TrEMBL record:
Membrane topology: Multi-pass membrane protein
Keyword Membrane: yes
Residue ranges occupied by any MacB-like periplasmic core domain in the UniProt entry: 20-235
Protein name per its UniProtKB record: ABC transporter permease
InterPro entries the record matches: ABC3_permease_C, MacB_PCD, Macrolide_Exporter_MacB
Domain ABC3 transporter permease C-terminal: 284-397, 670-782
Predominant localisation class: membrane
PANTHER family associated with the record: ABC-TYPE MACROLIDE FAMILY EXPORT SYSTEM PERMEASE COMPONENT 2, MEMBRANE COMPONENT OF TRANSPORTER-RELATED
Record organism: Pedobacter mendelii
Classification via Pfam families: FtsX, MacB_PCD
């Protein structure tokens, strides 16, 4: 019986090639879109879950009240790990690690800038990286040692065994390679290319020895013996700052490592979501695209009901039961879905390189994974059964006497259900059009919103090696200006597009007792205001070369407002336990998120040992490439051992919009696929309606109706369906997009434009799709339809 049904399915596919191609193509695009989205969701979901005890591993977060709200961040003091291990019940291991930074690794003439982390030995107990070579029990215990990842070991030593060989770190420390581990997976929040002992970090950075509980400078990770200790541990963690430093009102909490990547958005000390919201959107998108593809199959299958009615009648007349007919139609739909799945694989493999480049990740199909094949087969069966359910139940319900006599099949109910399905398709399509339009409006609004300085032609150069010497920096600045490659050069204590380096230890006259304000603090060089292109709204700038301004600072407008200073120039401010004088007010400019309000900032004269970047304004009258080449040569003359590390500020600024751009781009792509598949569904309904109204149209033509009249008649019904879909979609889209926008302090207002675009585009698509089929019917010879009457 199965063999017979399969033969019938194959014959039907071959007999109706056009329908078969549309069916298979629609399902293939739907399945491929669903698979790509599910691969991406699975990739993001698997973050930090590769380790044996990842479910018992936690990141220590700090909650600090300031500016009327609670700030949460995973920066902790270097004494946190030992305190947690000693005094928090249920803790198995506690370790601290630095955040990754690029360091120069040298082996002979081979020089590589690599991501390096410093960590203590317990770090390797918590994270069970696979050791390819070396002794895991001895790792990170000796100060002058280092662990390399496989790829870095290959770059440095080729095919040689790197164990016990030496490398040079930053041209200062000679370190022995004690182990090689597997490359850290890309879907890991803590990534590095090499790992060095925490003791080496303390040796290199004198400031890191400070046991001050206000010195938040590292990451602390904790592994519990069992998760039953979590509630008690978090209760004890809450007061850990107060117990160890009088007056420190910060609180600590243990946050699950496996949630760190997806739930890192905190409000008032609690996780309220994060990237998980994006994944929910993509999961919904995947399901809806698949649903639309299934609806297409239903539409196209029932559109052929007139042609298959006699087949059903004959099979019922010779003894087939309705159950066997339902089985046959289900087999056909599963078989078509299986064929579509083959084409979906091809589409996925072809499109993955593009999406990997777009997402900056490495999605791939693991053909050896039992989970993958189980999910794929489940998806095929689910899609096949769902797509075939309505055609199977509808087609198998025909009465044999009526269809064999040639009586017209009553199809009112089927038409109404089919119309409902098409409305559902276009509701989703209209929602996607509106949401995508608003996402791009928001992105454009924030990107074009003034950021307080001129980022074009502005370059940041990382200070490395000998460049950190004060006289070398001043010499480099002079040479850059003299060469004509730059019109302005200044120094900054941190990347101008990054956050961090903040404090609440600021006091002034009029400060409310117990009030806590979080200030960003930055060291600046001479000509800072002029170089970045911002404004001084009051007072004067800092003189950083001489010592006359060693006790002077500048504030930004947000700080003046937050401190409620009526006369900010000359105001005495106690900062870092030293009384300072404010000499100027700088216009607010964006350092952290472009979506949030500018934070209060304090600018102090940059001491050359804390300069991290040189900021250069390129000469607009010279060729950019030659200017950069000239600057690179000047840097290499001063520090030949390090590769020049520079980047354009506007490129760094673009990274801030990565999530929104990703959401917009994927919504655009898969929204386009959804709309295309919806058009196939509309085509299915157009075919069905044309089949049903063939004689009516022929009679109208005989009575004198023109092609335009008939096209208007046929399109009118579909435009009504699209209009109804838009009316349903508008409030749904408004609710969805309004919730998304509420996460931003700076946001675009929802205008009528996205809704006008949605209805205009959906009507245009519907008219074009339906007209393609309707035109054939309208131009057909009426004699062909009426000759048997």
């Amino acid at each position: 019986m199965f063999k017979l049904n399969l033969k019938i399915a194959l014959r039907n596919l071959w007999k109706n090639k056009g329908f078969s191609l549309i069916n298979i193509g629609g399902l293939a695009i739907g399945l491929a879109s669903c698979m790509v989205l599910l691969l991406y969701v699975a990739y993001e979901w698997s973050y930090d879950k590769q380790f044996k005890n990842s479910d018992k591993t936690y990141v220590v977060y700090q909650n600090s009240a300031a500016n009327g709200k609670i700030f949460s961040f995973a920066w902790t003091p270097n004494v946190m790990a030992d305190e947690v291990a000693a005094n928090i019940p249920g803790v198995k291991y506690a370790a601290h690690a630095s955040y990754p930074s690029r360091k120069l690794i040298t082996v002979g003439d081979n020089k590589i800038s690599a991501n390096l982390n410093f960590a203590d030995p317990k770090f390797l107990k918590i994270f069970d990286y696979k050791f390819m070579k070396g002794n895991p029990e001895r790792a990170l215990r000796d100060v002058n040692t280092i662990i390399l990842t496989e790829s870095l070991a290959k770059k440095l030593f080729g095919n040689e065994d790197p164990i016990n060989k030496t490398i040079k770190l930053e041209n200062q420390d000679v370190l022995k390679v004690e182990a090689v581990i597997e490359d850290v997976p890309a879907n890991n929040s803590i990534t590095f290319e090499c790992l060095a002992p925490w003791a080496l970090f303390i040796k290199r950075e004198a400031w890191a020895k400070d046991p001050n509980w206000g010195n938040n400078m590292c990451l602390t990770v904790v592994q519990l013996k069992d998760n039953e200790f979590l509630d008690g541990a978090n209760t004890d963690m809450k007061g850990i700052y107060k117990r160890n430093q009088q007056g420190n009102n910060a609180e600590a909490l243990l946050f699950p490592l496996t949630k760190w990547h997806l739930y890192d958005d905190f409000q008032n000390g609690k996780s309220v979501g994060g990237k998980i919201e994006q994944l929910k959107i993509f999961l919904l998108l995947a399901f809806c695209i698949l649903l639309i593809a299934c609806v297409n199959f239903m539409n196209l299958s029932t559109a052929r009901s007139e042609r298959r009615a006699k087949e059903v009648g004959i099979r019922k007349a010779i003894g087939s039961t309705r159950k066997s007919l339902i089985g046959q139609f289900f087999l056909e739909s599963v078989f078509i879905t299986l064929l579509s799945g083959v084409f979906a694989f091809i589409l996925v493999e072809v499109s993955l390189p593009y999406f990997n480049n777009l997402l900056n990740i490495k999605l791939q199909i693991d053909y050896n994974s039992v989970t993958f094949w189980g999910t794929f087969l489940g998806l095929i069966i689910f899609t096949g059964l769902m797509a075939g359910s309505y055609p199977a139940l509808y087609l198998s319900s025909f009465e044999p006497i009526k269809v064999l006599k040639g009586l017209k099949i009553k199809s009112d109910s089927s038409v109404s259900i089919r119309k409902v399905l098409v409305v559902v398709q276009f509701v989703f399509a209209a929602c996607l059009i509106i949401c995508t339009a608003v996402i791009y409006q928001q992105l454009s609004y924030v990107k074009n919103k003034p950021i307080g300085y001129n980022k074009s032609n502005l370059v940041q150069i990382a200070v490395q090696g000998k460049m950190g010497n004060r006289s070398k920096l001043e010499l480099l600045k002079t040479q850059m200006l003299k060469s004509g490659a730059a019109t302005g050069v200044t120094f900054f204590s941190k990347d101008i597009t990054e956050n961090g380096n903040n404090t609440t230890d600021v006091h002034w006259q009029g400060k409310t007792k117990g009030e806590s304000i979080l200030f960003n603090n930055r060291g600046i060089g001479n000509d800072f205001i002029e170089t970045i292109g911002t404004e001084l709204t009051a007072g004067r700038t800092l003189e950083t070369v001489s010592k006359k301004d060693s006790n002077s600072i500048m504030l930004n407008e947000a700080a003046v407002k937050m401190m409620n200073l009526k006369n900010p120039i000359g105001a005495k401010i106690r900062y870092w336990d030293v009384e300072k004088i404010n000499v100027g007010v700088v216009k607010d400019f964006v350092v952290e998120s472009a979506y949030q309000k500018v934070a209060p900032m304090i600018f102090y004269p940059s001491y050359m040992d804390d300069v991290q970047v040189i900021i250069v304004r390129l000469n607009p009258n010279q060729n950019i490439s030659s200017s950069l080449e000239s600057i690179d040569n000047l840097i290499k003359q001063i520090e030949p051992d390090y590769p020049v590390n520079r980047k354009f500020v506007d490129e760094s600024f673009e990274v801030k919009f990565q999530n929104e751009k990703l959401l917009g781009t994927l919504s655009n792509w898969f929204g386009g696929f959804a709309i295309f598949i919806s058009c196939l569904g509309l085509l299915g309904l157009a075919l069905f309606m044309a089949e049903q109204r063939k004689k009516e149209i022929s009679i109208r033509k005989v009575l004198g109706a023109s092609t335009a009249n008939i096209l208007t008649l046929l399109n009118k019904d579909f435009i009504k369906l699209v209009a109804i879909a838009n009316l349903i979609a508008f409030p749904l889209a408004y609710i969805i997009i309004n919730k998304w926008l509420s996460a931003f302090e700076y946001r675009v207002s929802i205008s009528a434009l996205p809704f006008i675009i949605a209805i205009g585009l959906s009507v245009l698509i519907a008219v074009l799709t339906v007209s393609v089929q309707s035109l054939k019917v309208a131009k057909a010879n009426p004699v062909d339809a009426l000759k048997y009457e």
